Amino acid sequence: MHTREIGKYDIKPPKKSSNWITTPDEQIKMHALVIACGKRGGGKTVALTALCRHLKKDKVLDRLIVVSPTWGSNKHMFEGLPVDEEEDVYHEPGPDIVPQIIGKVVQESKDYESYKEKLKLRKQLEAALRLTKNDSDILNISPQLLIDCFNLDVFREPPKHKYNGKCPVLGLFIDDSQATKLFNSGAFQNMVLKHRHLGDGLGISIFMAVQTYSAQTGGMPKALRENCTHLLLFRTKSQPVLKQIAEENDLSEEEFMPLYEYATGDDEHSFLFIDFGPKSKDRRHIVELAMAFDAAMEARHGPGYNAEEVVRFEPQKEEPLRFPEGEILPIQAAPPVIIPHDAPRETKSVCEITEEAEEE
């Protein structure tokens, strides 16, 4: 095949990213579309609310809107989260709530832009007043500036903002709503697909707890599954579902199942966490991480090791990872990033096991 480079048609990406929210290195990227899938009582709501608490602690979640017909019995799970029960809890999931939710995002965006406009005028007024040396100098201040400050109520004091001038980060939590009219409505699906663009780019992250990954009726629409940024997959007996998830992520069953089995284990509340857009720029396939893990474990403990009895998997360190043959792979260079949620930090990492095996 003959190729020729045409320089004048280069594509130059924009300097500014649409993802304006900065999160800590170990935190997920925002805006996010997070789906937790598992059976009833599996721990989906607990896991998602725990994630939201960490986001709030990291100051990347300021307001959480909740859609849940079971709010009355589950609201204790939302303790400590920025939920206004009077304003932001919807007990009846239906298509009619979609414009209301979008309206709240739009209003937050308008409030923030209004605050910035008022703050700008107030600073201009203060700068003009600093130049006055006597009462007569006040006449030199622009009449239009004085009128604008008076009309926007910043003449006597600086503007106030409910988030103290911080651009708000919004979240939408949808629980026990999969079999309702909400999921089947085009308005809802459209909102989810455009979630990060709502409110002139203010956006909203979405957290959904579902029992069915896909089905003819009542399941997750394919368009939403394909736009999912993070998946919490709990224990399931449905092999077709597991096969579908593997295929939708360009994995074979042989590549996917060992990771799924290891993460979920025998605990019904364990789950496999998949990050489809990790922050690491050096990307590689998930199966390489699995192969490196197996190679390191076999080098240490021999073939047929029991991972549950030996060590919990914790790929945290940015150190090189070696196959027994000597090939080097970076430890944190793969989307999706797979981390068992209950991995204790005091246990050894894959890198530490590999280093000890090489020393022996």
Describe the protein in words.
This protein has 360 residues and is of the alpha/beta class. It has a domain at 108-151. 36% of the residues lie in helices and 12% in strands. The chain has twelve helices and ten strands. The strands form two sheets. An eight-stranded mixed sheet has the order 3-2-4-5-1-6-7-10, sandwiched between helices. It has a two-stranded antiparallel sheet with strand order 8-9. Strand 8 (320-322) and strand 9 (328-330) form a beta hairpin. Helix 3 runs antiparallel to helix 4, helix 8 (239-248) packs across helix 9 and helix 10 (286-301) crosses helix 12. Mean pLDDT is 77; it is low at 282-293 and 307-360.
How far the N terminus sits from the C terminus, by CA atoms, comes to 49 Å
- The SSE order reads EHEHEHHEHHEHEHHEHHEEEH
Strand content: 5-15%
Poorly predicted ranges: 282-293, 307-360
User: What's the alpha carbon Rg, rounded to whole Å?
Assistant: 26 Å
Helix content: 25-40%
Placed side by side, the strands forming the largest sheet appear as 3-2-4-5-1-6-7-10
The main pleated sheet reads as:
8 strands, mixed
Residue-averaged pLDDT? 77
